[in-house]
Amino acid sequence: MKYNTVTLSRFETVVAALHSLGGQARPAEIAEEVRRLFPGPHPDSLLQSVRARIQECSSDSNNWKGKRDLFYSVHGIGGGVWGLRAMDPLNPANEDGIADSAEAYMAEEGAATLRTHLRRERSRSLIDRFKQQLTSYACSICAFDFATTYGEIGHHFIEAHHKIPVSQLQPGAKTKLEDLAAVCSNCHRMLHRAGGISVDDLKGRLQS
């Protein structure tokens, strides 16, 4: 499916790219997905434009315009990963809803992604507790350590992966600390991209 770039505004292309990437991504990844979804000439400043659109449409940013609040900072400001908020920006009943031309293509997929974010936000305290009890912040799959590579800014930085996909949890299901795995950003993306592959399976693929 190709988009009509004439009918999509800049913030709408960011929404479309984030949906395509699973709802969370870094600005550089979003910019690349915009290029893929919307073929054609793009300015050299596309990455800067993506960052600006996110910040203008996020109350997590000091540059928020106070209108649309579509994006949130997954790891807090400075963490580098942005996600779509729990509200549905594709719903025409929402005053922040986007153009009908995009809605027709993305509404069903978008709704499922945003329900997942609702669960993740409710489990934030569990994820924080999981990270606090770690004795090592190296990736449990590839052993990458952010502090070793990036120094002070990487100190105690790691991502928490749900071994049982959040989308498969039943309403009211309880997630325990042992249901989470400490993984780096690359391995986390590969786990989700592979469509439900386990931590052990991905580790085996890497070792082989």
TrEMBL record:
Spell out the CDD domains in the cross-references. HNHc
Q: Does the keyword Hydrolase apply?
A: yes
The UniProt keywords, alphabetically, are: Endonuclease, Hydrolase, Nuclease
Q: Which Pfam families match?
A: HNH
Keyword Hydrolase carried by entry: yes
Name the InterPro entries on file: HNH (IPR002711), HNH_nuc (IPR003615)
Please list the GO terms describing molecular function. endonuclease activity
Residue stretches in coiled coil? none
Q: Which residues form the HNH domain?
A: 139-193
Question: What name does UniProt use for this protein?
Answer: HNH endonuclease
